[in-house]
Write a structure and sequence with these properties.
With 261 residues, the protein is of the alpha/beta class. Helices cover 31% and strands 23% of the residues. The chain contains 9 helices and 10 strands.
Length: 261
């Protein structure tokens, strides 16, 4: 999937205000950011069916920091694609911040990806010819936000992740850890309901990994809802909850030692 496919939304609504607050249910409680009910995803390979995700039910509330961990082939990447609206369900229900994803068409899904979800990937997906702030503004460009507002919000996002003095640097002038911070700033610039990080430390050395995890810790303390996909136990243990996936099935939740309740 290209950056255009990921960030472009419905251009019939070009004003592109920040994502609206999460809705509340009739008794005033927060509706979960993520609610999966008996979700399954099946792929067909020739005459065979591959059940990548099997009857997964999962709830993640606003402000939670959840790690989804599993070995290669466990189904965690497919689950990430479903949560990120990058792939459609075979069966079950998925509500993102109270909205039924299963009934959305491609234009609506693109709109959700742009406005409701901030993506951070193992590969930084930064455009080498653009400065840090211009990389960060990309989701706002596709959403139709005006130039002055784009720059202001991009600089604010970079300052939030500690790169306020690097806004004009190109990716090749930044360390791996700094490039990942640019990617995080890009994910935050639209003020999404969900920050979805797929193996965000996979291309980083140990020092940059710790730096990135400290940033996620800080974003969690600020109240961000974070879902982090990883195969590394030490990375997963930084989360508030750990969800293990094996053979497409979600195992009972774990709470790392010392994690907040």
């Amino acid at each position: 999937m290209s950056l255009f496919d990921l960030f472009s939304g419905d251009r019939r609504t070009p004003d592109a205000a920040p994502a609206r607050p999460l809705p509340a249910d009739p008794v005033g409680e927060r509706i979960p950011v993520i609610e999966l009910v008996d979700v399954a995803k099946t792929y067909r390979m020739g005459t065979q069916e591959v059940h990548a995700v099997r009857n997964v039910s999962l709830r993640i509330d606003a402000g939670e920091f959840v790690a989804i961990i599993g070995p290669s082939g466990s189904g965690k990447s497919t689950l990430m694609n479903v949560i990120g609206c990058l792939d459609v369900l075979s069966s079950g229900e998925y509500r993102l911040a109270g909205e039924d994803v299963g009934v959305m068409d491609e234009v609506e899904l693109a709109h959700v990806r742009n406005r409701r979800i901030g993506f951070v990937f193992q590969q930084f997906h930064l455009l080498p010819s653009l400065s840090a702030w211009r990389n960060v503004e990309l989701p706002l460009v596709y959403a139709g936000v005006g130039r002055e507002q784009r720059r202001r919000r991009a600089v604010e996002a970079l300052t939030r992740v500690g790169l306020g003095d690097r806004i004009d640097h190109k990716p090749g002038e930044l360390s791996g850890g700094q490039q990942q911070r640019v990617a995080v700033a890009r994910a935050l610039v639209g003020d999404p309901a969900l920050l979805l990080a797929d193996e965000p430390t996979g291309n980083l050395d140990s020092t940059a990994t710790e730096d990135a995890l400290l940033l996620f810790d800080e974003l969690h303390r600020q109240g961000r809802t974070i879902v982090l996909i990883t195969h590394e136990t030490e990375v997963a243990e930084r989360a508030q909850r750990v969800v293990r996936v094996r053979d497409g099935v979600v195992q009972p939740d774990e709470r790392p030692v010392g994690a907040p309740v």
